[in-house]
Each structure stands twice: as C-alpha cells, then as structure tokens.
Amino acid sequence: MTECLTAKSKIQATFNEVAELASQKNEKVLKQETVNKFLDKILELQNHLTERTNKINHINTKFQEISWLRDIDADSLTIIRKILDLSKLWHNKLIKHYVNLNWARKDYATEAMRKFKIEIDDLKERNQDLEDLFFNLPADIEFTQRIEKLSK
User: Fold this and answer.
1) From CA 13, how far away is CA 19, in angstroms rounded?
2) Which of 119, 126, 130 is CA-nearest to residue 55?
3) What is the pLDDT of residues 32-78, one digit of tens each?
4) Which of 82, 88, 89 minimizes the C-alpha distance to 124?
5) What is the rounded CA–CA span in Å between residue 126 and residue 129?
6) How far, in Å, CA of 54 to CA of 71, rounded?
7) In this model, does residue 1 exceed pLDDT 60?
8) What pLDDT score was predicted for residue 60?
C-alpha cells in the first residue's frame, strides 16, 4: 500500500509539473514580451535624453541672450558669476551622466546621445564665452584699450 501511495504522489507531482508547464505562455510570446520590454526601455532612455537635451538647449539660449546684454551693473555681474559657477557644476554632472550612458551610444540611442553630447559641449562653450565676455576680457588692459580705439 505504501508503494501505491508513493507511486500516486509521484504521479500527482508529475501531473502538477506538466500542468504548470502546459499553462505557461508559449516561448515565442515570452520572447516577444521580453523584446517589447527592452524596446520600451530604449524609448524611455531616448525620451529621457531628449528631455535633458531640451533643458540644456534652453539654458544655452538663455546664455546667448545674456551675452548680448550691455551696461551690466555690479549686482548683475555677481549673479552672472554665480550662474557660471553653477553651470560648471551642472556641466560636470552632465558629462558624468553621458559617460555612464556610453553603452547606449553605440547601439540603442545613437541619435539622442549625439544630440545630448552636442548640447553639453555647447553649454561649456557658452559658459566660457560669458566668462570671457564679462570677466576675462574686461580685465585685459590691452584688449580694453583696443576696444576703446575701435569705438572712437
């Protein structure tokens, strides 16, 4: 009788395993779901990069607008200095973010990564332009003298 119970429990366990396997989705569907989730993550990454790129572009535009301003007072120069300092910190964070996402640059978000990097580079360049325009060049006596001669 014990053998009968053991055989019956083995048969029941096998039945349970087969029933579980039979009720699972087919492999093709599972693979498709996995691919879809992967593609969704790539789209999510691309959207994230596009959003960040747009924010950087917005700040780059603001920097360009500031570069055209004239008759800047001392308080405004102080604020510009703070903007530049914060922008440098932000640029460093963006570069680290770009490096951490380097794996995506080659295969998954090539165009979004390219645009992101261009805007990061533009941010650095515009930051340097503002620093030169408002702080470095006015402190350069030779430059200031030449500008005075040209304006006469």
Assistant:
1) 10
2) 119
3) 888 888 889 889 999 999 999 999 999 999 999 999 998 899 999 99
4) 88
5) 5
6) 30
7) no
8) 97
Q: Which residue has the tokens 């790129």?
A: 53
More confident call, 140 vs 132:
132
- The answer to whether residue 3 scores a pLDDT higher than 70 is no
Q: How many CA atoms lie within 13 A of 150 on its CB side?
A: 6
Cα–Cα distances in Å, from 36 out to 15, 25, 39, 42?
33, 15, 5, 10
Query: Per-residue DSSP letters for 125-146?
Result: HHHHHHHIIIIIHHH-HHHHHH
Contact present, 63 and 126 (Cβ < 8 Å)? yes
Residues in the chain: 152
**What kind of architecture, by CATH, is found in domain 31-151?**
Up-down Bundle (1.20)
